[in-house]
Amino acid sequence: IIVWIVMEIFAPQVLTLFAYTWTEDKPEVFDEAVWMLRFTLFYLPLITLVAFAGGILNAHKKFALPAATPILLNLSLIGCAIFLKDSFDISVKSLAVGVLVAGVLQLLVQIPSLYRLGLIPKFIPDFKDSKIKKVMKLMVPTLFASSVAQVNLLLDTLIATMLPIVGVSFLYFSNRLLEFPLGVFVIAISTVILPTLSRQFAKSEDEKFLNTMKWALNLGFFIAIPAAVGLLVLAKEVVVTLYQYGEFNAESTEFTSLSLIAFMLALPAFVLNKILLPAYYSRKDTKTPVKIGLISMFSNMGLNILFVWLMWYLGFIALHVGLALASAVSGWLQTILLYRSLKKNGIISNGVIDWMFVVKISVSAIVMAGVLVFIISNLSEWQVYSASWRALYLLMCISIGFAIYLLCLKAQRVNFKNLLVHQS
After folding, report:
1. What is the 8-class DSSP label of residue 85?
2. What is the rounded end-to-end Cα distance, in angstroms, of the chain?
3. pTM for the whole thing?
4. Nearest Cα residue to 326 out of 126, 171, 128, 146
């Protein structure tokens, strides 16, 4: 609440930190952005309560509802964009309303489940309580370590506003596609394994702890590698299908596709990050992820400058791609350091990653990529199709690609039951 109030009051100053060139070059855009920032900030206390409610439900092994609540944000944004776009002087303001509506809905849908469990919390602030102090002590470093990718994106956005061709929108749109597999699948995995790992650590069940990590990492590879390969191959087609309408032209598609490709190079790293971090949190180790997060963040800052300068020197126009590449490299650095630290401290062993399984997944993904390249090479330029045909062809490519991927894994005798169902 304190953060929300402070940001509401100092919204212009906060926005200046990340888009200060707009204050002089685009003052009217800056003013509208301040209005939208202040309006969408109401989402902050709401989503905090949503996360709190979700944490309570997860602790009682009620995973489905908290995992499904993000869908309401997408539905709310789509609904408000369709029905409220003509209600404002600038149609994009309807999306700000959509964010607020989503926050209210996300909170309301969880209340019945909390009520049935008899767990409707009462707000009784007592900061002297030892349990609250313990939560605060663990929460702050956990929050930072889990948000390194988001902090890096903010730094990328700041630099993007200063580029000759402002790449803020291109980075944002491509990052949304990066976040899709993370938000839909990987967050669900990390949410499920955290209480399991915590219980196994408390009972000193080291072998079960290792098996849980091995299962989660295998499932992470199963999702991340084909998703990364698929989006690398279909980058332009996905961007055209989802974004190329209205003022989003062919050039915008090209620039967004390039940054999407750069982000996809590190999708497996971002997935592994989300899975490795619970191994630390389950042991109440928040210091190590923070140290590694700081290394990743500062390396991202340095790489941002290096890659943008290098691409400018080589004559590239899409300098924002250098920012995406920097995030990708720093993401891999964070993953490697997290893994090495767990291994060094004896928390995991060499066998936690089934490299033969990774090879099988990689081979299957490469075969899938070959089929997808063949399909799209025999289709016309995606832009010539209507929105419905674009969506249909994209769905066809994804379905065929996924089927080929699964068939290749089946041919290599991968056991899907053990992969999808974990016995803790």
Report:
1. G
2. 38
3. 0.80
4. 171
